Amino acid sequence: MKKYFVLLLSCMFLAVNAQKTTKIGYIDMDYILEKVPEYAEAKNQLEQKANTWKHEIETKKNDITRLKEALASEKVLLTKELITEKEEEIKVLENEMLDYQQKRFGPNGDLIIQKSSLVKPIQDQVFNIVQDIAAKRNFDFIFDKSSDLTMLYSAERFDISDFVLKELERAGKKVELSKKQQKIQEDKEKREFDTKENPEILEKEKAIEATKEAREKKLQERKDALAAKKKEADEKRAELLKQRAEARQKLLDEQKAKREALKNKAADNKTPENKTPENKNQEPKKD
C-alpha cells in the first residue's frame, strides 16, 4: 500500500486545496550521500570491513562443508557414538557461524549500526537544509525519492537534491561571506532554482535575447550602410577636389607658359638699332 501513498496524498491535497496551488518537491538521499566526499570515503572503509566479514563467514562455511564431507566418507568406519559426537561438533560450528553472520549482517548487526551512525549526521544536516529551502521557496511538501514512499512519477524540475548539496558544501567549507557576496550567491541560487522549476522562464529569456540580437543586428547593418555611404561620398568628394586641383594647376601652368612665350618673343624682336648710341660709338680701350 505504501506504493500508492504519494499518489493518494497528492490527490487528497489537490482536492482539499482546490483554490490553492500545492507546491511539492523531492530529494534523492542516496544521490546526495554519494556526492558527499566524507560519506563516500567512510562508506568505502565500511565496505572493506563488510568484505572481510563476508570472507570470514565463507571460510567458516567451507570448513563446515569439509567436516561434513569427511564425516560422510568415514561414517562406515566410525561408531555410532563418534558419529553423534562429530555431528554435534558440526552443529556447534554451524550455530557459531549463523550467530557471527547475524552479529555482522543481521537487522541489528554491525553493518547496519555503523552505516546508520555514518549516515545520521548527514541526514540531520539535510533535514535542516530542507526545512530552510521549504520555507524560502514556499514548498508545501518535500519527499525523499529513495525512501519507502515510492514515487510513481517525479518530474526532474522538482528535484532539489543539487541545491541541498550546495548548502552541504557551503556548510562544510565554513566560508565567511560578506553581505554583498551572500546576496549575490542567494540571487544566483534563486535564479537557478526558479529556472529549473519553471523551464519556460529560460525559453522566454531566449526569445527576448533573440529579439534583442535581431534588433542589434539591424541597427548594426544600418550603421554599416550609413558608414559605407559616407565613405563613398568622401571618396567622391576627394576625387572631385583632386580633379579641381589638377585643373587649376593646369590653368596656372598654361598661364605661366604664355607669359614665358610672350617674354621670349619680346626678346627675339629686339634689333641692333635699338641699342643706345653710347654702345655704338664706344671704341675698344687701348692698352
UniProtKB/TrEMBL annotation:
Domain of life: Bacteria
InterPro entries registered for this protein in UniProt: Chaperone_Skp, Skp_dom_sf
SUPFAM superfamilies documented for this protein: OmpH-like
Signal peptide: 1-18
Protein name: Periplasmic chaperone for outer membrane proteins Skp
Family designation: Belongs to the Skp family.
Keyword Coiled coil: yes
A Pfam short name: OmpH
PANTHER family according to UniProt: CHAPERONE PROTEIN SKP (PTHR35089)
Annotated region described as Disordered, given as residue ranges: 176-287
Keywords in alphabetical order: Coiled coil, Signal
Recorded coiled-coil stretches: 43-103
GO molecular function: unfolded protein binding
GO CC field: cytosol
GO BP, one annotated term: protein stabilization
Source organism of the structure: Flavobacterium urocaniciphilum
